[in-house]
Design brief:
Elements (H helix, E strand, L loop, with lengths): L13 H10 L12 H9 L25
Length: 69
Amino acid sequence: LDVPARSLDVLVSDEELEERRAAWTPPPPHPGAERGWLALHLAHVQQADKGCDLDILAGKPSGARAPVA
């Protein structure tokens, strides 16, 4: 993990990664994933390259201002 370079390296050969990709199948839905905290997590937690944050809490683009009520 190289945070300043925003890089996450896996120390596995390209051949091994291809074998894993070919063998992978998505897991079945988790019981209870249709609502509640688990559903919120599955729907809104971003990937590692985005900081594993909730997409619904993403800030405004730089320079943007919040509307005044």
